[in-house]
Amino acid sequence: MKYETLRDLITLPKIGFGTWSIGGGTYADRSRDAKSLSALRSALDLGYTHFDTAEMYADGHAEELIGRAVRESGKKREGLLITSKVKPSNLHYSDVLRSCEASLRRLGTEYIDLYLIHWPMVGMNLPDTFRALNKLVRDGKVKHLGVSNFKLKLLKEAQGLSQTPIITNQVPYSLSDRSYVKNGMLEYCQKNRILLTAYSPVDVGHLNIGKALQSIAGAHDVSPFQIALAWLINQSCVIAIPMSFDAKHQKENLDSADIVLTEEEMKQLN
Questions:
Q1: Catalytic residue, candidates 3, 27, 48, 57
Q2: Cβ neighbours of residue 15 under 8 Å, at least 6 residues apart?
Q3: Over the stretch 153-187, which tens digit does the pLDDT of each residue have?
Q4: Which of 42, 56, 57, 242 could disulfide-link 62, Cβ–Cβ 3.0 to 4.6 Å?
Q5: Hey, which CATH number is domain 3-269, 3.40.50.2300, 3.20.20.100, 3.10.20.30, 3.20.20.150?
Q6: Is 57 an annotated catalytic residue?
Q7: Burial (Cβ within 10 Å: 0-12, 13-18, ≥19) of residue 40
Q8: What does the alpha-carbon distance between residue 133 and residue 116 come to, in Å, rounded to a whole number?
């Protein structure tokens, strides 16, 4: 596994485990608990250490299932990295504090490694939000702060308000979605040592497989999906959080971190 280390503050694996659809979608669906727990257990058994979730995922039920799977696994909490996010309707000072307490309770943990603003909201009072986020860090309930779906101007504003370094901006990034390359976000993150966390890194399984991608996959004897992930994580300051319920695909995603693409292959995919 390859890792990204930021100024001796935090080290994250290049491949983590996303949990959107664990426990349901927008709302909890407990009829899917067995399938969701099976996916989490296989991910833990395979060696995933970074789990990304949010209070919005299955209305908090995803966090409950992650907490349960971790407890049942016997894995040491300090060996795992858990990211969670506060939803845009909870960005007022007191709401942020309540949201974090609720996430901690559902996860069954004393701290969250990385806590993000899930989405910016029109008219939000970002100084008020960061007043709460900074307090959570001071109180030891959150180790590090980040944002998600922020454009460059807003990211810079967040940096100015955060009393600790912003660790990541989590955005959609894949071979077919390069909007955050075009708007300058990736370059800024690389220059300033901020992680760009790529969600939907293989387009939710609907990857457009062109000739170059197919050819490079054949040369490495791996799947096109693995090459798509390798393309991402061969880039500086980029990590990815794919998700799969299938243990075989989970392993393939994890193994993508060990694929080394040549300069010419990167150029073709670029």
A1: 57
A2: 1, 48, 50, 229, 233, 239, 240, 241, 242, 253, 254, 256, 257
A3: 999 999 999 999 999 999 999 999 999 999 999 99
A4: 57
A5: 3.20.20.100
A6: yes
A7: buried
A8: 9
